[in-house]
Amino acid sequence: MTGQHFTILLLFLPVAAPIQTTGCPDGDPNLIPWNPGHDVTARVVVGRGQRYLLQTSATFFSLEIKDGGKLVFADLGLSRDQGIVLRSREIVVGTDGEFHI
Known about the structure:
The chain has 101 residues and is of the alpha/beta class. Helix content is 15%, strand content 34%. The protein contains 1 helix and 7 strands, in the order H-E-E-E-E-E-E-E.
């Protein structure tokens, strides 16, 4: 019985391999460094053609990512004591929007 499960696993392994991602989203060279600051009244929309790399903490009233917009948290690694904090009453990821933490 164990041999049958092992054989099945080997048959499906090559099919699953191409699905894996090729790297971290923050490595995308098309991302623009973004440090928006803190504005509790700001209604921010990241839309068509906007591709941001969030490098510092930020505060908004709302954040909407849509129509091909992309927001990626920067990977700070071990160089910082605190990570990036995003504060918002709501975050909406709409059609074709991307949000990577």
